Structure formats: structure tokens, C-alpha cells
Amino acid sequence: MSLEIITALYFLVLFAVLFMGLPVAFGLGGTAVLFAMIFEPRALFAIPSAFYYTPWNSVLVTVPLFLFMGSLIRYSGIAEMAYDAVYKLIGHVFGGLAMGTVVVCTIFAAVTGITPPATITMGQIAYPSMMKYNYDRRIAIGAIAAGGALGALIPPSVPFIFYGLLAKVSIGDLFLAGIVPGIMLASFYIIYIGVRCRLQPELGPALPHDQRFTRKEKAHAVINIWPFAVLIILVLGVIWGGIATPAEAAAFGATGAVIINFIYGRLTWQVFRISLATTLKLTGMGLWILIGANIYLNVFNTLGSQDLLTELVLSMPGGTTGIMAMMMLIILVLGMVMDDWAIIMLCTPLFIPIVDALGVDKLWFGALFVVNIQIAYLTPPFGFVLFWLKGVLPRDVSFGDVYTSVGPFVVLQIIGLGLIFFFPGIATGLPNLFK
Questions:
Q1: What is the rounded CA–CA span in Å between residue 153 and residue 240?
Q2: Which residues, including other chains, have CB under 8 Å from residue 304's CB and lie 6 or more apart?
Q3: Mutual orientation of helices 362-377 and 425-433 as an angle, nearest 10°?
Q4: Which residues, other chains included, contact 398 with Cβ-Cβ below 8 Å and sequence gap of 6+?
Q5: pLDDT digits over 130-170, tens only?
Q6: Three-class secondary structure of residue 398 per DSSP
Q7: How is the chain split among helix, strand and coil, in percent rounded to 5?
Q8: pTM for the predicted model, two decimal places
Q9: Would you say 18 and 337 are in contact if contact means Cβ atoms under 8 Å apart?
Q10: Are 193 and 138 in contact (CB under 8 A)?
Q11: Residues in the chain with pLDDT < 50?
Q12: How far is 49 from 293, CA to CA, in rounded Å?
């Protein structure tokens, strides 16, 4: 059997087992073991080493620490204070609650590093509030979904950590590369909501005059979001200031979250226990996926498929632009069936040799990669954010409601991706400025 057919089957079998519902880690590892046994038995010797060397990379220490920091903020209820602040500040304008939801999701993203916390928390807090004031369901759901997806992009982004580890790119630089694209996308969402609700006030009514707040109440609400400001400055400031490595900054952040919860009297055993449990669950999932991806890629390389893939892609018409567009399309399609960690761990080692051969900046490619993952998160039929959000919304909200709500926001994401594609400085400007 030719190498081309073996390579095609290698990918097809993986996608088949994933569609059947097999966990991603076992799908990756199981497919690799099966093909190694049939076509290249000597590759089996590399499998035990993947279990040993994968978890020992020092960069991975950042993952559970950032997850623990975000879990403490989420489960202690401190996130509700941020929503209360934006509710009091801009609830009086058309679409204010939906715009505020995007703002809170952006802030939440800056202290969690992943997508689920903001999506789930805002689904539980913001959606009922918007329904109470007669917001259109599509605007409400779309704002939560699009805002929640920012967790993958805005630092301290866990997807960037995994990409930096695999692509050998500075994580501090990647964090910087995510700031402007993240703020740009959040601004697009806010502007869209504001304009749409101004033209169609029934979609996002302003708060009644008798329920508006005094300047003193607004100022007090703003002061209450100091925990987020402290954590963002603490974590990102020590990295960009050269004071600490990302792993050390993650430890600062986790410790800061513990202290903040203690100050507020919310560091209960229940909060601590569920935060630890969530951290262990997500970290364990990530490590298993990384181990499975390493096994899959070891066998892929041993078969000789990596060289074949690189040659095949580089020979395609369209030059660098066409090849980059094709890789972005592959990421988008994979995002419909796999989570962001799995996509990064699978695609980064496959794509980086191609990126290097093209002479493309890996920092810029990383920003495009993660922005694209956000789009995949909101794209039916299997966008993961859509499933998380559906799980916390009332039963009268159908998947059809969720799917139709994200359409305009997906368009805005594609526009953002296009701008970063044609104007790389949007992503690389800040990292170059700090060098």
C-alpha cells in the first residue's frame, strides 16, 4: 500500500472514531497504535516515552495554576460583581446589558485563559437578566457566545501556552499578540450590538428611568471590580516586565485569587474543593490529549507522512496566501468536531514545518490559529461554545435559537481574521514594540 493511501487512511480513521464519540485522547492514541502495529511496529517503542516526557515540560505548570485561578473567581461569585458593575454603568443605553456582557466576558477571559468559564457563568447570570428586561433572545445568546469565545484568545490564554510549547515560540510574546485582536473583536461585538439595538430598540431595550442608578452607586460598583484589575496586572505585568516567567506568573495569579477570595470571605471549603476538582479534571484532560497527540504524531513521522504532507501542501497553487488559507480552513473544520486543545496539539506539529518552509512568522500564525479556533467554536453543527451554552440555558431555548443567534458574530470574527491575515501588525505590533 502506498504512503499516500496510508496517510489518508490515518486521518480518516481518526475522524471516524471521533465522530463515533470516542474521547479525543484515546482516538489519537488508539489510531496511532493500530497503524503502528499494522505498518510500522518499531514505532511502538516510542509510545512509552510519550507517557514519561510529555508531563514533565516545565511550561505545563502554568496550565493548572491559571485554571485554578479562573475557577476560584468563577465559583466564588466574584464574577457577578463585574456584571453588576457594567449593569449599573451602561444598562441605561439600548443594548447596554448585551454590550456589558461582552465587556465582562473580556475581563473574565483575562483571568481564566479558557472559554468555558465565561460562557457558562454569563449564561447563568447575564441571560436571565437580559430576559427580565425583554431583550431579544438572539442578541442575548449571541453576545454571551461570542464574548465567551474570547477566553481562547485574550491572555493568559491556555491555547497560546500549548501552541507556544509545541511551536517553540515565546509565550509572553504570544500573550502580547492576543491583546489587540481580542480587544478588536470585543469592540466589533459591542459596536454591532449598540448600532443594531439603536436601530431596533425592541431588540435591547434600555433600563426604565425608575431603575437607573446614581453616580455614587455606579462608582461603588466600579470599585468592586478591583479583583480583576489586580489579577490582570499581577499576572501579565510580571511577565511583560521581565520579573517572572509565565509559570511563576501563574503561581502569582493563583495565590492572588486565593487571597482575594479570603478578603471577601468567600474562600469556603466548598469553593476551594470544586475549584480544585475542576482544575484537576481540565488539566488531566489536557495532559491525556497531549500524550495522545504526541503518540499520534510520533507514528505519523515514523511512517514518513509528515514529509509527504509538507511536500504536498507546498506544491499547491496559490503560493503562501493559498497555503495559509487552506490551513485556516482545516482548522475551522476541525473546530466543529474537536476542542481547542486537541486541535492545537494535533495541528501545530503538522503545520509548523510548513510554516517554517514558507518563512512565515510563527507568532503571526499562532494569532491566526487561535482566532480561527474562536470561529470554529461558534460554527454549527458541533461548535463547542454552542453546546456549553445550551447546557445552561432554559429548556425552552432550542439549538435552532442558539445557532441562529451566533450568525452575525461569526461574520464579525471572519472579518477580524481577515484583517489579521492581511495586516499582520495587528497581532505582531505589540510583541515587536516590547522587544
A1: 17
A2: 3
A3: 130
A4: none
A5: 888 889 999 999 999 999 888 888 888 888 988 998 898 98
A6: coil
A7: 80, 0, 20
A8: 0.82
A9: yes
A10: no
A11: none
A12: 13
The residue written with cell numbers 510519550 in the block is 50
How many CB atoms are closer than 10 A to CB 128? 12
**151 close to 110: Cβ distance less than 8 angstroms:** no
Amino acid found at 149: A
Distance of alpha carbon 431 from alpha carbon 435, whole angstroms:
6
What radius of gyration do the chain's Cα atoms show? 22
Q: Helices marked H in 200-337 — which ranges? A: 215-223, 226-240, 246-263, 269-303, 305-314, 319-334
- The one-letter code for the residue type at 46 is A
Residues listed for the chain: 435
Write out the three cell numbers for 257.
485569587
What are the C-alpha distances in Å from 198 to residues 17, 191, 194, 201? 47, 10, 6, 5
Task: Quickly list H helices, 20-136.
Answer: 24-39, 47-53, 62-76, 78-90, 96-112, 116-132
C-alpha cell at 5: 493511501
Question: In the numeric block, which cell numbers belong to residue 86?
Answer: 457594567
